[in-house]
């Protein structure tokens, strides 16, 4: 991972130790919030994963997912999935900034 550890001046590609903790939570919501009849409450099981890198200045990452996070392998899978998604989002952001794509204010 490209990261800057405490005491380093610049980020670099290196092995880093991360700590992932997760817990199951339940979210209650009403699926039909438009109009007068909101419908009945629905419950959904989610997992909150907290990813920390102790030897860095980074704030903990909070990941909320509906993929089960029940063991070390599933926690690592979730972190990798979100990390890949962040890289895609960063690419889109970069492309928009370089090419000057802006959303029309009336859209």
Describe the overall structure:
The protein is flat and about 55 Å long. The protein has 1 helix and 5 strands. Strand 1 and strand 2 form a beta hairpin. The model has no long low-confidence stretch (mean pLDDT 86). Helix content is 26%, strand content 29%. The protein has one domain (2-99). With 107 residues, the chain is α+β, with helices and mostly antiparallel strands. The relative contact order is 0.15. The protein has one helix spanning 72-99, and strands at 2-3, 12-13, 19-29, 42-52, 61-65. The protein has a 3-stranded antiparallel β-sheet with strand order 3-4-5. A two-stranded antiparallel ribbon has the order 1-2. The two termini are 38 Å apart.
Tally of helical segments: 1
Strand order of the largest sheet: 3-4-5
Strand content: 25-35%
- Give a short account of the largest sheet: 3 strands, antiparallel
Number of domains: 1
Averaged pLDDT, please?
86
Shape: flat
**What letter string, H or E per element, gives the SSE order?**
EEEEEH
Q: Indicate the low-confidence ranges by residue numbers.
A: none
* DSSP E strands, number: 5
Helix content: 25-40%
Distance between the termini: 38 Å
Secondary structure class reads: alpha+beta
The gyration radius over C-alpha positions equals 19 Å
